[in-house]
What does this fold into?
Amino acid sequence: MALEAQEKVMDFMNNARQMMTEAVDRVKMPTPMRLRDLIRAIRAARTAADERAVVNKECSQIRNSFATEDTMWRCRNVAKLLYIHMLGYPAHFGQMECLKLIASSKFTDKRIGYLAAMLLLDEQQEVHLLINNCLKVDLNCPTQFVVGLALCTLGSIASIEMARDLAPEVEKLLKSSNAYIRKKAALCAFKIIRKVPELMEMFLPASRSLLSEKNHGVLITGIVLITEMSERSPDTLNHFKKVVPNLVRILKNLIMSGYSPEHDVNGISDPFLQIKILRLLRILGKDDSDTSETMNDILAQVATNTETSKNVGNAILYETVLSIMDIQSESGLRVLAVNILGRFLLNNDKNIRYVALNTLLKTVNIDANAVQRHRATVLDCLKDPDISIKRRAMELCFALTNTQNFKIMSKELISFLQAAEPEFKAQCSSAMVLSAERFAPNKRCHIDTLFDVLKTAGNYVRDDVVYNTIQLISAEMADLQPYVVHESWKAIRDTENCTEKQPLTQVSCWCIGEYGAFLLDGISVDGENLTVSEEEVILVYQKILDATHMSLVTKQYALVSVTKLSTRFPRATPKIEKIVSSFGSNVQIDLQQRGVEFKQLFDSFDHLRTALLEPMPPLERDSVMTHLDAAESDPIPSNDEGQEVNLLGDMCFTDSKVMADPLANVGNGQTNGHTVAGGGLFDLLDSQPSMDLGTNVIMDHNKTNNTLLDLLGNLDACPPSNESPSLNAENDLSNSLFGPSALGSTHLPSQNSMDLFNDSSPVVASSESMTVLSENGIKLIFEFCHGPAKDLELKITVKLVNNTEKDVSSFEFHVALPKSMQLMMPKINGGIVIGANEEKNINVITIKNPNAAVLRLRLRVSYRFQDISTPFNHQVEVNDFPAAMCSW
Amino acid sequence: MIHFVVLFSRQGKIRLQKWYEARPDREKKKITRELTNAILARKPKMSNFLEWKELQIVYKRYASLFFLFAVDKSDNELITLELIHRYVEVLDKYFGSVCELDIIFNFEKAYFILDELILGGELQETSKKAVIKQIEFADNYQEEEIISLALRDVGLI
It folds into this structure.
């Protein structure tokens, strides 16, 4: 007895001593701030800088504490770190600490540890391996809360490896006797299958038994799991078709059972479960008439019996409608479903209207007529202030448009377009163009709609609309061209501020330029007699060309157009000449160039003007579209290029492919194959670097011939029959002008120009070459074996020429291509050495151009001369490849 | 499936964020910033739905706090609203007429409750009572553990 008492005293003494030392320790190291106090301190910070200061100070203390392996305050520190992390500060340094917390035996530590793991770790983290082991231990823990925590964490951050490792544990827990664990395990299984679908089979047996549960938590998670499996594998889908009667029974019980307080939401029994069941039924009944048959009745029951005064009821109805429309349901049921959507559309609740539009959009393909009945209501939704609803309504309107209702719908959509937010305008106008193309009852209506779109959407119209409209007028509206040109005239005459409607101005200018002659004829449109005088047209052009905020593209359209008018408006020619020549000194280099060149048409080449300015042949749709695609897919479109492409529609075809069309049509032997090479020539005039060249040449050589070439290059729109005699005449001259000697170091493909003007010998330049670099007597020449092969590959032999008296060493070159292309270039180890006055082929590169984009590349070269230690570096951009070699 | 949940204040401050799929931290920040701005710019009379990339956002404002759930496009938006409401109800019951401050100062509790309601992006319990009960059980278990540890510390057990 006395011994026992003595022991107790001893124990007490020991404990007291321990507590004392602990207390002393605590005094030595100050207690860290409590979470609550930290939150207060942060909230009290007045400025962002103050807040940062508080956070930084606390973070450094937390770090210190972590570094000293302080277990006592670890939990508190990690909790604080979570708050700091939520504010957006970095907290990755706590990752290891949360693992330590998870490994602790205390539930408090585990709770915070797992919470931190879910917030601070994500799939990419390597610490996952460590957490895997903790999870494995905890999943086998007898305490349900610990297992719950582990399952929850697994459900949140499961990675593929984790899913594989822990799937057996989860499967075991799926059969646990504890409902709390079973439901969590079911959702973990769901997550595991999403990560690693092939693990599905392991869960099949256990998941089916989940359906016989009474507990709603287990039921709903079981249904989620089965839904996921059925969506992933057709076999499993068939397997679970057997459970349809069970599902129907559960659903029926939910509807029929009276009020059950535990699962009631506004008078409806467990809507969450009902919706999951309806969804699974939809998946199981899809494309299967027998299975659909078994669920027809229950769907009808849900659709008719659900109370719709509250959001929950509508949520269920919405899900029911989706199921009815998706399975092979009876026609009566479908009518019921569409009527429910009709009622939804009239609902005051915006959410329900939104859902209705969304669903109608999904069903419009299945049952267009049923949806048509709600057209008026849908049109009303266009006026809704809510963007989400408006967007849905707009999409639905386009889906509902057909030939019969096109006029009404387009009218409504145009007025929608007028009032719509900018973000809608581009999308809506492009959709209108497509819709008009498909459904406009006649050409007149079609073109009217396009003009309406251009007028209302102003500058928000995408470029494709401009191209499409021009192409349409050119190719398909031959009989309506007089009408169109008057419309165009009215459009630019009545538009007060053309800068806000530039796409309209562009189309109008193009039309007037092409078909301006009709303007003078006068026409009677809708009873209104229109007569136009040349002077007023020119005045408007003057206005457009002088406007300061007009884009370059629009001015280009206008300038080309007004030049064309000089042959259509005989009396205005002097005035036009004045306008054109005024551009000879424009600050915009492109306009200046056009001004200078067009001016020639009024001076030295007046006799060619009429022929050169003939209207364009009908534009082919595909060529325009292809070029557009190419331009769009180009990852680095420089400003100049973009404009070049825009101009395509007006008069100069820069692209060889497009150009080939009108010329080839004529069937002139000379054009055969060779004209294609002319692309290089046009480059001379269309892009800036070559422009310099053009002027140089003019200085040095026979003036007349040169300028003529310029003009021909730019205005290929003239019929080739006119063109060819003059071309032949210039043969020799062009050769000398563009021969290699004259060109020297320029990028111009020498062979090119000759091709265009040579006789019709069918030698398609079997080996074209171009000098891409010529510096300090070092030349780099690209030799093309042949044009791009069918698989869009282009092979280029790279030849290095050393024209100096010195040896060159360490010659290296690198090639960069736009992203859409691939480069294959054998690597050469060490620099290349080339002796004085030597030349050799140094490499063969292959360019793959799957998108057939415009070929361009950038070249970087470095080398050293024998006697000079500093290396030379050059970088050049090569974008004027011979057209024949890169017409993909 | 729910892809993520964000609670944020009228000033755009994040009060809680839960991700059910892996994304790098920087991307998370970008997404939350983008979405809070988009939602705060919306007028109160607009619908509670927003399309966003391949997901749709369902959000609802309760007093000064916005609750945002990002779900699949194929998910039922209306029931997601109910789910948000369910979460708010449970918070309300747990804290006793919950307010933003409760969630700020007890954010870990708000997480625990959410984790009892939703797991892996899906609802795990449709009974309000059961959720509350489980949270309370866990809280009690934790408290008992703390007390027993403290007692063991001073040597009483």
